[in-house]
Amino acid sequence: MEALQAHLSVTRRKHAAGQYLFRAGQAFRALHLVHAGTYKTCELADDGREKVTAFKMRGELVGAESIGLDTHACDAIALEDSETWELPYPAVMKAAAQLPWLQAQIHAALAAEIRCDRNWMLLLATLAAEPRVAAFLMHMAAKQARLGYSARHFILRMSRLDIASFLAIKHETVSRALSHLADLNYISVQRREVRVLDEDGLRGMATA
Amino acid sequence: MEALQAHLSVTRRKHAAGQYLFRAGQAFRALHLVHAGTYKTCELADDGREKVTAFKMRGELVGAESIGLDTHACDAIALEDSETWELPYPAVMKAAAQLPWLQAQIHAALAAEIRCDRNWMLLLATLAAEPRVAAFLMHMAAKQARLGYSARHFILRMSRLDIASFLAIKHETVSRALSHLADLNYISVQRREVRVLDEDGLRGMATA
DNA sequence: CGAAAGATTGAGGTGTATCAAGATCAGTGG
DNA sequence: CCACTGATCTTGATACACCTCAATCTTTCG
Q: What is the DSSP secondary-structure string of B160-202?
């Protein structure tokens, strides 16, 4: 995905914490590749119900779910000062028509998105609150590691409320789960700073 | 999607009720367009946890989530005697490279899959058991209508257990919810046969 | 027909939501 | 710099929706 600049014009966009990358209903014109920082995407219902559906970091694509629509299907919001590369969708399509590897990459990225969502669906459907939180922490740790940071010590960029929404529980429950995981000495938490003390313990909690 | 036969070889495959279209771990070689009947897809975890992630009927694509992988990421099972058109994936890719409209269709289909999953995630995260069941019935009714059948009277092709798994509740809870919706005279149910008596009532239940 | 699978209904237990009160932190303006 | 304000987080007590366990009934299929 990183060799794209050679084939199409890429615009850098910076977003302050809390700023919208796009809102549901706005015209869909481009995909966004996260270059720095963290974003969340929020699914919205007509009646006001909403849920955080994903957290996106460097190398991940935002906005793909709106392909084929005129307007965006969800909100995307920066959780900290962040930056994306904007990839105009028509240009991407044109480039993909010329470059089989790019087409394969796009298909693969969309399919991976589906698999990721379904993994979370499975997890939310089959695990209780505390295991969900444990799995979430493991997942965040893995993401950190993939980006070259420590999987043992990291900062959660999202609020308890965001985590709660993502995990389909209440924020009080997230708080309690974190406190309990700390009591068990699997982690230490201070506000948004997390330290993983016992990875095996966490893993055990996340699958049982 | 129906003009595909002109551009690539399509194999018809029949499946008896309960038969696997593919299993997780089997080689991924083709997409499958449902031509008749109903299939379910099941996401599996290493430790045995599983969840029904989708029900697919005529015109819907099965297997897209495994694009980019060597092997299938989930199970797909026929719920009744059914038939698919098998679309060899390499051939699809080749055709898409020549036909921009096909490429756009594929992107759109994958994106639509993501949006559909996220709608269910939102629903499961924000609604209680009974509204989930009501929403599920409305959804099934809409699917029936789209295929030209009655949205007022239809047969559920899946068991209570399948519905329960899909909605992330227990099958007893599904049963009770259905009974209660019948008590309210929103529907009538006998086993898998459903009649919608009060669509507005159902809709109200599904969003509150 | 008999056996197994699926569906319904009841009674009781439990995990999480709800409601509420403090504590801690971040940002603002005096 | 500090007081002030609002947002975020933590913790407790209670309520209730759903799960669990169990029995019964119906349908399906060999």
A: HHHHHHHHTS-HHHHHHHHHHHHHTTSEEEETTEEEES-HHHH
- Bridge partners, residue B85, by sequence: B12, B33
Answering whether pTM is above 0.85, one says yes
For position A3, what pLDDT does the model report? 65
Domain boundaries, chain B: 2-122, 128-206
Alpha helices in chain A (DSSP H): 89-98, 100-126, 129-146, 160-167, 171-183, 199-207
Kindly state the percentage of chain A with pLDDT values over 90: 93
CA distance A71 to A140: 30
Architecture of domain B2-122: Sandwich (2.60)
- What's domain A128-206's architecture? Orthogonal Bundle (1.10)
Q: Is B185 exposed, middle or buried (0-12, 13-18, 19+ CB in 10 A)?
A: exposed
pLDDT tens digits along B121-140: 999 999 999 999 999 999 99
Q: How far is B122 from chain A (nearest CA, A)?
A: 6
Indicate yes or no: strand D within 7 A of the C-beta of A183: no
Calpha distance B136→B120 (Å, rounded): 10
Mutation choice for A interface testing from B114, B120, B132, B167 by most A CBs within 10 A: B114
Q: What distance in Å separates the CA atoms of residue B10 and residue A29, rounded to the nearest whole number?
A: 34
CA B161 from centroid of its chain's CA atoms? 15
Q: What are the per-10-residue average pLDDT scores of chain A (208 residues)?
A: 72 94 96 97 95 97 97 96 96 92 94 98 97 98 96 96 98 98 96 96 90
CB A100 within 8 A of CB A145: no
Given the DSSP bridges, would you call strands B30-36 and B20-22 parallel, antiparallel or unpaired?
unpaired
